């Protein structure tokens, strides 16, 4: 079961705790950030630091089912010779480097309006 975190009790991103250690990042709604990191470690999909920040800030779901569908979409894109793709999972767009199996950024439906995807050669609905 995921831990719900009150965002009002979190320190700003990049702030340090009183003991000098970095502050804990905010958790995505519905999933504890530690759960996301553990799931990510077991996955063959890597996430750039930028993608992790977007996922965290926008509260994007990165459940095991989402990761499985994302991996499947990346595999399908690789099978067609794609290099950089947008993989849509449940309305969320993940811009990925297919060759590196790395998520570059993620955009949820609420932030997708007026969004332009550049430098991609394919799109996959997973």
| Helix/strand order, N-terminal first | HEHHEEEHE
End-to-end distance: 25 Å
Rg (CA only): 15 Å
Widest beta sheet: strand line-up: 1-4-3-2-5
Strand content: 15-25%
- Summed over residues and divided by their number, the pLDDT gives a mean of 79
Work out the number of β strands. 5
Number of helices: 4
Principal-axes shape call: globular
Write the layout of secondary structure elements.
Blueprint: H1 33-42, E1 46-47, H2 49-58, H3 64-79, E2 84-89, E3 92-97, E4 102-107, H4 109-112, E5 122-125
Parallel strand pairs: 1-4, 2-5
Antiparallel strand pairs: 2-3, 3-4
Description:
A five-stranded mixed beta sheet has the order 1-4-3-2-5. A hairpin with a 2-residue loop joins strand 2 (84-89) and strand 3. By secondary structure, it is α/β, with parallel strands linked by helices. 32% of the residues lie in helices and 19% in strands. It has helices spanning 33-42, 49-58, 64-79, 109-112, and strands spanning 46-47, 84-89, 92-97, 102-107, 122-125. It is globular and about 35 Å long.
Brief synopsis:
The protein is 32% helix and 19% strand.
Features:
126 residues; alpha/beta; five-stranded mixed β-sheet; 4 helices; globular
């Amino acid at each position: 079961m995921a831990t719900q975190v009150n965002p009002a009790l979190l320190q700003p991103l990049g702030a340090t705790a009183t003991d000098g250690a970095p502050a804990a990042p905010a958790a995505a709604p519905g999933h504890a950030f530690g759960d996301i990191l553990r799931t990510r470690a077991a996955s063959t999909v890597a996430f750039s630091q930028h993608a992790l920040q977007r996922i965290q800030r926008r509260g994007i779901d990165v459940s095991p089912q989402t990761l499985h569908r994302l991996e499947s979409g990346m595999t399908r894109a690789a099978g067609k010779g794609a290099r950089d793709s947008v993989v849509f999972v449940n309305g969320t767009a993940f811009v990925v480097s297919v060759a590196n199996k790395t998520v570059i950024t993620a955009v949820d439906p609420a932030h997708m309006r007026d969004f332009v995807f550049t430098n991609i050669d394919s799109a996959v609905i997973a």
